[in-house]
Amino acid sequence: MSASGGTKAIVAALGANLAIAAAKFVAFAFSGSSSMLAEGVHSLADSGNQALLLVGGKKAKRAATPEHPFGYGRERYIYAFLVSIVLFSVGGMFALYEGYEKIKHPHEIKDWYWPIGVLVFAIIAEAFSFRTAIQESNTLRGRQSWTQFVRRAKAPELPVVLLEDLGALVGLVLALAGVSLALATGDGVWDGIGTLCIGALLILIALVLAAETKSLLLGEAAGPDTAERISEAVVDGSTVTRLIHMRTQHLGPEELLVAAKIAVPGDSTAADVTAAINAAEVRIREAVPIARVIYLEPDLYDEAAAAAGPDPAKTPGGPGPEAH
Fold it and tell me: Would you say 3 and 140 are in contact if contact means Cβ atoms under 8 Å apart?
C-alpha cells in the first residue's frame, strides 16, 4: 500500500470528524437529542482513531534494532487493533447506554433545526471523507471486490477508514431517521431507538475490524499473486531447478519475509550454490520489491522424499512444487 495514499485518507477523515463532532455537540446542547450526543461521541472516537493510525504509521518507520531485528512494521497493525477497541467501547457501548436511557426516560426534542441542520452538514462532510478513501483504495484494489479488499489488504489504514466512514454515513442516516420520527410523532422514544441502532452498528464494525487486524497481528502470508511471482522468480532452471517449499509472512504492510528451500544441481560446488542463492534473491526482490528479508536453504530434490508426504519437516528433499 502507498503510505501517502493512506495518510491522505486518514487526514481527510480526521479533519471531517473534528468539524462534525463540534457541530454535533452544539446541536445536542441546543436540542437535547440523544442521537446527536451519541453521534458526537462517535465522531470524537473516530477522530481519536485517526490520530492513532497516524501515530502507528510514524512509529512503524523506526529502524530495526538488536531487540527487534525485523523492525517495527507491525506497529501499524497494533494501532489499528486499538482503533477497533476504541470504536467498540467509546462509540458503540456509549451509544447503547444513551439509547437505553432515552427510551426509558424520553423527552421532546427542542429547536429541531439544530439537529436536522447538523446532520445534513455531517452527511456532506462524511461523504467527502468517504469519497477520498474510496479513491485512494481504488488505486490498490484492482479487480477485488470491496469485501475482498477489506479482508485481504495488508495495510490496515484504508480498510479502517473505509469501514469507519461507511459506519458514520449509515449512523447519520439512522440518527436523521430517529430525530425525524421523534419530531413527527412528538415521541422522544424514536430518538432513543435511533441511538440504539447507531450503537449496534458501531459494535458490528468494531468486531469486523478486530477480526481483520487480529489476523494481521498473528502474521499473514503473502497473497496468492505475490507468492506466485516469488515462485516464478526463484527458479531459473539451471542453478535453481525447483522450489521445494516456501513460507512467507508480512512483517509489516510493506515488508515481507520469504523463507524457502530450493533445489540445486547435485554437482554444484559451494561457490555455485552461493552464487545461485544470491542471484535468486536478486530476482525475488525485482519481482516483489517488498521482499526485504529472504532466507534460502539449498537442498537436493528427492522424489522419494517428496512422495512421502506434505510435511516439510519430515521431507527435507520435498515436497514440490511449493507451499505458502
Answer: no
284: cell is 525475488
- For residue 105, the 8-state DSSP code is S
The C-alpha cell 488505486 sits at 139
Q: One-letter amino acid identity for 165?
A: D
Closest CA relative to residue 164, chosen from 19, 4, 18, 50: 50
Q: Which residues contact 193 (CB under 8 A, 6 or more apart)?
A: 99, 103, 178
Q: Which residues touch 7 (CB under 8 Å, ≥6 apart)?
A: 54, 57, 157
Mean pLDDT of 43-59: 86
Give the Cα-Cα-Cα angle 114, 115, 119 (nearest 5 degrees).
Answer: 120
Q: According to the model, what pLDDT value does residue 41 have?
A: 84
If one counts every other C-beta atom within 10 angstroms of the C-beta of residue 162, the result is 21
The whole model's pTM is what? 0.72
Residue 164 near residue 172 (C-beta atoms within 8 A): no
Backbone angles phi, psi at 20, to 5 degrees: -70, -40
User: Whose grid coordinates read 513460507?
Assistant: 247
CA distance 54 to 45: 14
pLDDT of 323 above 50: no
> Does an H or E element contain 297, and which?
strand 291-299
